[in-house]
Amino acid sequence: MSEKNEKPAEYKRSDASVKSSREFGYAARAASVLKQVILPMVFGKYGNQLHKRLQSRIISVLHTGPEAKKGKRGLADGDVTLMKGLSYNPYMQFSTLAPGISVGVVIDPVSRKVHLRVRNTGESGFKWPEQAISACLDVQVVAMDVERLTVDTYGLERLDFGLRDSDATEKKASVPITEMDHRLILVNVSISFLRVDSAGGGAHISHHQRCHAAYIAAASYVKDGKVVEFKPDATPSKSVAQPPVYGAALTKWDES
């Protein structure tokens, strides 16, 4: 047989390459699962970009896990708080459209509830797009089994803020979670606007990329009935109780 037709020797990947590949695959699967529950908050847009943003952030979390577990690290092993702040719309930030909105989150594993508080400073709370008549705030809580990569999602009633509403407001809600232990808990928040046409009719929620935004307002991992306080690498993670400070059907605001 000529040298030209000989089969090349089988390529053998390094141990480090195999381990990195495993974690890359885990991050891709986790991102795919999360993307499906997040897409409705951005009107089904940015699918591929959203997947890449989620995957990249998940890989960053995995890299904070113990080096000794490399190749087998999951979200439970890393600093999941790195997920916080991730923007789902690559073209617009939540803080740009809703600078006066703050979202407070307390995760209480004892009662298996996520306590939420939304504050609006008033008329300066939003950057109003042209012909907008109302701002719409949606909040979603996600509980993800980081080993099986399954999720439970919990929604809240939409909060509407009128263009002429000038008073500061505060809303509270407590969301009961069916299973919280050994789960990644994410709180997703989105802002969109009800707009009308030039004649004042045709009211619709705008899907324009500059008129809506969504992000992760909180990210925590719960283990053995406590919120995990991440400690880098070889130092064992410490679990700390996090009691509520205020206080899956659609949860209503101002209900505990």
Describe this structure in words.
The chain is of the alpha+beta class and 256 residues long. The protein has one domain: Immunoglobulins (Immunoglobulin-like), CATH 2.60.40. The protein has 3 helices and 11 strands; from the N terminus they run αααβββββββββββ. The protein has helices at residues 15-38, 47-62, 94-97, and strands at 101-108, 113-120, 132-145, 150-155, 159-162, 169-176, 183-195, 204-205, 213-223, 226-229, 238-240. The strands form 2 sheets. Strands 3, 4, 5, 7, 8, 9, 10 and 11 form an 8-stranded antiparallel β-sheet that branches. Strands 1-2-6 form a 3-stranded antiparallel β-sheet, with no helix packed on it. The protein is globular, with a radius of gyration of 22 Å.
List the topology elements.
Elements: H1 15-38, H2 47-62, H3 94-97, E1 101-108, E2 113-120, E3 132-145, E4 150-155, E5 159-162, E6 169-176, E7 183-195, E8 204-205, E9 213-223, E10 226-229, E11 238-240
Antiparallel strand pairs: 1-2, 2-6, 3-4, 3-5, 3-7, 7-8, 7-9, 9-10, 10-11
Mean pLDDT: 89
- In sequence order, what are the helices and strands, one letter per element? HHHEEEEEEEEEEE
How is the main sheet built?
8 strands, antiparallel
The tally of beta strands, per DSSP, is: 11
How many structural domains are formed by the residues?
1
Name a few traits of the molecule.
globular; single chain; 17% helix; Immunoglobulin-like; three-stranded antiparallel β-sheet; alpha+beta; eight-stranded antiparallel β-sheet; 256 residues; 3 helices
Brief synopsis:
By secondary structure, this protein is of the alpha+beta class. The protein has helices at residues 15-38, 47-62, 94-97; strands at residues 101-108, 113-120, 132-145, 150-155, 159-162, 169-176, 183-195, 204-205, 213-223, 226-229, 238-240. The protein is globular.
